[in-house]
Amino acid sequence: MSEFRIKSHPIIETTEDANILFFWQSKPFYARPNEMLSSALMANGVSVFSHHPVDGSPQGIFCANGQCSQCMVIADGIPVKSCMTPVKAGMCVEPAEGLPTLPQVSENYSFVEPNIPVTKTDVLIIGAGPAGLSAAIELGKLGVDCLVIDDKDRLGGKLVLQTHRFFGSTEAVFAGSRGTEIAKKLESSVRALPSVKIWTRATAVGVFSDKVVGVFRDDQKYELVKPKVLLVATGAREKSLAFPGNTLPGIYGAGAFQTLVNRDLVKPCKNLFVIGGGNVGLIAAYHAIQAGIHVAGLVEAAPQCGGYKVHMDKLVRTGVPIYTSHTVLKAIGDEHVEQVIIAQVDKNFQPIKGTEKLYDCDTVLIAVGLDPVNEFYRRAKQFGFSVHAAGDAKAIAEASAAIFSGKIAGVNIARELGYETDADTQAWQSLEDVLSSRPGNIEKTKVDFPHEGMYPVMHCTQEIPCNPCSTVCPKQLIKVDKSDLRHLPYYASSSTDQCINCGRCVAVCPGLAVSIVDFRKQNGKALVSLPYEQDPEMIAVGNMIEVTNTDGISLGNYPITEIRKIAGFRDGTRVVTIETPAEIATEAAGFLIIKRDEPKPFVSEMELVENLADDAFICRCERVTAGEIRKLIREGVRDINQIKAKTKASMGACGGKTCLNMIKRLFQSEGISLDEVIETPIRPVFVEVPLHILGNIKSDKEETHD
Questions:
Q1: 2-99+240-368 domain in CATH 1.10.8.80?
Q2: CA-to-CA separations, 310 to 324, 445, 545, 668, in angstroms, rounded
Q3: Which of the 8 DSSP states describes residue 7?
Q4: Which H/E stretch holds residue 224?
Q5: Do the bridges between strand 617-619 and strand 202-207 make them parallel or antiparallel, or are there none, so unpaired?
Q6: What's domain 609-706's architecture?
Q7: What is the DSSP code (8-state) at residue 176?
Q8: CA angle (86, 89, 93) in 5-degree steps
Q9: 389/393 Cα distance (integer angstroms)
Q10: At 168, phi and psi to the nearest 5?
Q11: pLDDT digits (tens, 9 = 90+) for 192-251
């Protein structure tokens, strides 16, 4: 079913054919080499993987990162998380319907005392994202014996999902490069270091009191690692959101959506709606547009989007409606989401009756923040490990900040082990603080642009750490204050040096926020060069294209006079030149790509009361609603263990990864301080491992361990 495959992409190469035969409910399907089962099923038009045994509700992908268990299927007779299981030729896959039947006890099986291999290393790094790889590079440069493990089949963490250019410092964190490129650069550096070993498809399943870490490798063997020092760089998991219909197939976390679209080149939907206006939601919506997916709208509960304004502007310019001070009320659908209801909220974030809007969509992307994956760190501290944390596992921030967080952790660990280094970690910490800082205030453009000559226009009006435009200008005419990356760039021409329209600043800007205006014809017209990162087949010289300003307001349709790729930036960004009236040239900032959807007529049948979300599910695994938990809180329960005993919340296959933080937020919403709440112990094995692997149980027909 090729309609669910991305056949062409403006940024990503699409070369591999789907030629691996497998079977879904005895039907022949085809997957790409090394493709995860979940993506292969979605690529073949399957979005419902099973139905929950409690209430028959449809189950599908939610996180695509091994954190939840909604994508469980039966593969060759074994229950597996489809998002973490690669397709094998001839694999037979079935839905995980109903309650499982335990296998018959057979005398042909016996328990053999496990002889589990133990690997000793100076440093074990859990997580090969930007923080983990950066730490490994610093350790490897000093010759420290280091083992890096990651549960994915490639290095880079979330960087491998990012097709946009990164902000920050060009010199320090590869700003101006795409996340996919940064992942390759970090991987190349770490693989060149002989003292660093790497295990991919190696999942840390637990840390134990004898100071070893259990690792499940390649879905077939269990090993122990005994490090002198442990570094936890496990990143973050996405927060969920409680609203009726929140577990329908088609409701994804942003990471799941980016995994499908940018890593696996699967087109999971045609019409997307986004919840959350932080950088994650804004970026994911832009990735959807790059992949040719219509974005119906985006809502943010706060009065303004929390992400970078230039990320928001990229959406607004293309035609995506953004509703601030709005929230989602309900997702509607039977086996899959079909519509979403949103409404305006008051200053207390309560929905306002009469402001509801109904949108058609086949996918809702939830991007309402991240929680650190820090259970390994907390348990290791409890057991007395020498343990450090870096990146999002330490503090949620941008990937550029995670690079420096990892570098600092690597040097600190090396020093702890007795290695000498002159690394200036204090200066690194100052840069990390800048890179992780919140976006500044939005300023109005103060420049009075002349209608003569040729020069770049910077459409960024919010201070954020970013300098690529200044580093690529061959004439060094674009300036960013070297004392603080967050200062806005400006153009400083002279009598001897002027803009030459090389287009490098236009192509490199992560916010697509630079244009070049050319008034030299002096005929009441101007040429404007703008960045373009969508389907190249949608544009051609001579065609008319609708142009917008930074607020998404149409400035009219104007002819394309030139389309070019800039030397050194042959990775999908095109510079498109249009001819406009001179009076609007400096306002032109982008192209209208998305046809704006208007909400459907809507008559509310709901009472917008405080407990609107009582029907929303908090615990996906055990189907426990917000109302059930809220009732217990109001009855005086302050111990999450009691909530577990009464409702089974957090006792499902995910081990509380998606619901425990939501339960805590329910306490807070009821005015209960978390200081009053007794937390539940986290099970020592954080990730599922087949019992026959842990117990070394083999059939008499199979080899057993010595």
A1: no
A2: 16, 14, 22, 33
A3: -
A4: strand 221-232
A5: unpaired
A6: Orthogonal Bundle (1.10)
A7: T
A8: 65
A9: 6
A10: 110, -150
A11: 999 999 999 999 999 999 999 999 998 788 999 999 999 999 999 888 888 999 999 999
